[in-house]
Amino acid sequence: MRAQVGHASIKHQHATNEFIDPQDFESQTKRYVRIVQAADRADLIVDAVNAYLSSWSRDRVRNLQMIDGGWGPFGAGQELSVLRSLGDVWRLYNNVHRQRICLGEANMTYPDEIVLLEQVLGEATRAARSYVSKALGLRHQQALSA
Q: Over the stretch 89-133, which tens digit does the pLDDT of each residue have?
């Protein structure tokens, strides 16, 4: 079962972007990095990551699952385990990042999928930090003015 993208702005972004060949995974990833960078709310960040993951082909999922040891976002039947919160995004990013570091330290090669997934999740965590920082700043200002 593919993830459902719930927000019109993400759907609009899909509809208005230039056509990108689904076989061109790197260009597809760059497109989703731009979508994540434009997300300015927690739900939009999570939706953008889910949309990216749901765009993966079965071959891409299989390549990731060959090295993921169960930490990846796809289940045994290659279904996406939908991310529901910024915490889910952060946890997945940390898992991907640690796995890439460990494989690199062991001088093992890793598939492009892990590098590209880390790029999107890295941007998502940066967007999340920015969102949380702004939200906390607003709350602090509101508390001071009350």
A: 999 999 999 999 999 999 998 888 999 999 999 999 999 999 988
Output the CA torsion sign for 69, 116, 18, 48: positive
**Residues 59, 145 contacting (CB under 8 angstroms):** no
**58: phi > 0 → left, psi -120 to 50 → alpha, else beta; which?**
alpha
d(CA 31, CA 36): 9
37-49 confidence digits (pLDDT tens): 999 899 999 999 9
How far is the C-alpha of 75 from the C-alpha of 68, rounded, in Å? 11
Q: Identify the bridge partners of residue 74 per DSSP, sorted by sequence position.
A: 80
Residues 62, 76: Cα–Cα separation, whole Å: 10
